[in-house]
Amino acid sequence: MLKGILFLGIFLIYFQSAYSLEQKLDSKMTLGWEISGDEILITLKCKIELGYCSVGFRSTMSDCDMVAALNFGDSVMIMDFWSVDHSEPKPDEAEGGTNDLVKVSGGLDSNNEIDVTFKRKLVTGDIYDNDIYPDEIGHITWAYRDNKLGWSEHSYYSSAGFTFATKESEMYFSENLDEKFNHGNSLTFSWLGLAVIGILAARYFRHNCCWVYVHTILLLVASLITIINSSRLYSEAKFKKYELGEAIYFHSRLGQFMMSLVIGECIFGFVSLYFVLFTKNLHGSKLMGKAHKAVGYTLLISGLINCFLGWGLYIPYFGRVGTVGGIIIIIIVFVAFQIYQVCKRNRFTKASISLPDMTHIEAMEKIRNGSKYMFADDLVVNVRFFGISHPGGAYMINDCIGEDTGKYMVGCSSYGAEFNPFKHSEKAFSFLKNLAIARIPYPSGYIITPDTSERHLMEFVLLQKEKLNEHTFLFYFKSDFFKMPERCTESLWLGKHFLFIMKKRFKRIRRYYSSLFVDLDNWKNELGLPVSGNTIREDGLVRFIVKVYQGGLMTSKLNDLKIGETLTIKGPLGPGLLLEEFKGNYLAFAGGTGLVPFLDLVHMAYKLSDKLTGFHLTLFVFFRNIKDGFAFDILEKIADSNEDWFRLIIVVEEYGNKGKVPEMIKNELMKEIKLAWICGPSGFNRNYANILAEGGVKRDRIIVM
């Protein structure tokens, strides 16, 4: 009897302040505790008459040690559970652990509600128990169900930041379930809504100047929401891994990773925009653009994954199903846009008949008055606001105003010598339809047809191929339906080109070649020069001079074309020389086969020479060496015939005169230049365009072909 009284006294002294610290969790639950040594005494007070209340030692039910007090109506049972996720927790023993709870006192109070005290070790050593760290901010979660017997899904659930304090001054409690739901809703709205719309705008609507505002604003808002909301919950992310649990830890760290990506994405986006708008650094623009795109898609995917993980922590079934449903909708939207882009917008179609007609001359007049127009085959396109969309930089667009975009788009020419030609995607070609403001009518009489029906694509067959030098050939094509006049009768026809179209391995190959009106052998006969003897005497032929390049996609196919085989062409296209009359001083720079359009110019002037007054043409012809050239004999014959309207300067290695060209140009620029034409390879075109501009020739008077 004496031993029992002594033991009771020691117990009362040991736990004399057992309920001295107490925290009201909500209107139904109160949690009390006392820490002594390596043990903790916990009291659960729950206004539950039939059902249960439980407390867990993490912020969610994932990898959570839980204690449940089950009220059977006449008794209370304390059980030690381990919860893997939001499904029904199992007793520790069922998982292979041990029951580490010892009931101390209590059960039901006078109102038949739960009021029970139990104890456990702070560190039990059981892998199915969470360790309790006194005076460290951590988390608890609690739940209960009333008016239903047994261990079933709770009717209420919440969580909070919490400290098992050793004294009142160290107590901490902050319920955060609503904040977590707001966090989830905000991040879901950001990454399943705003970010997706922003990316769609950048991917499919670059032709519209508003895309950049939609993309920037929506992604910036999504980024700010991510940073602000994640920062609010940073107090959770800073906890030790053992307190968070694997699922929450991964979700939290992925969120921190996203915050880093958000900052990087904003930096890459604005730096990329700076490069595009204010520099001529193509490599910087491309690098920043690719980095921005890569980080952006990584961010979107990370956001979708984290939404799935986050909702899985708090609303496991409906949250995950809803997130997966949203992701499926996003995928369907992206697939639908892509199918529409590939099957509808990327189709090679003729210019819309709803567009008004505008000639090249009319467009050039508007350009001289400040309009930002370019030409795209049979379209006039307004690129005033497209510079911001062009990944190569706005300067490329600004420097090419008034030019035909075809040579750049198909990848047979580049902006300058320091850049390689770049074949644009079919999506890029589709943008031209949206940028178009007018349709350019085909020049009347250039192609003769039996009726007045509008032509889009024309089929010609190869009639003959004549070798001009080792790599250059004169091709003769014939059609029973489409015919070309024997001579150029309109100066505005000069310099126009045709689009050649071939398909190879499901890819559409496009290239541009200037047509040739004049029959070179007939012209040689007139001048008393020897001829090849291979001249074809047939009306309506279309002639092209083409240099065959080893590995060239189009020229190799052309060179392999057999007599009688078909070629699809479209044209005539391009502004050509824009020569309205033979009056004034003109400069022409021909590089390689860029000489072709000037042969017709010289021939037409030659035919009109008796009537020419006030017209002068200086033609610079560039070839690597003499054997690579053609038609030199014709041009030299005319230049030597004391025609005062024509000056010829041939620049080849044998003559050693390339270094003198800048000085010769300077001398020519002492006269007022009405128009200057440049037709040659990429670096050649931009180089001489810049030399002329620096020499005082207005940009709208320089025609780069």
Automatic annotation (TrEMBL):
The keyword Oxidoreductase applies. InterPro entries: CBR-like (IPR001834), Cbr1-like_FAD-bd_dom (IPR008333), Cyt_B5-like_heme/steroid_sf (IPR036400), Cyt_b561/ferric_Rdtase_TM (IPR006593), DOH_DOMON (IPR045266), DOMON_domain (IPR005018), FAD-bd_FR_type (IPR017927), FNR_nucleotide-bd (IPR039261). The chain crosses the membrane at residues 187-205, 212-234, 254-277, 297-315, 321-340. This is DOMON domain-containing protein. Its main location: membrane. One of its GO terms (molecular function) is oxidoreductase activity. One of its GO terms (cellular component) is membrane. Its cofactor is FAD. The lineage of its organism: Eukaryota, Sar, Alveolata, Ciliophora, Postciliodesmatophora. The keyword NAD does not apply. It is found in: Membrane. Residues 455-579 form the FAD-binding FR-type domain. FAD binds at R511, Y513, I545, K547, M554. Residues 27-145 form the DOMON domain. Residues 1-20 form the signal peptide.
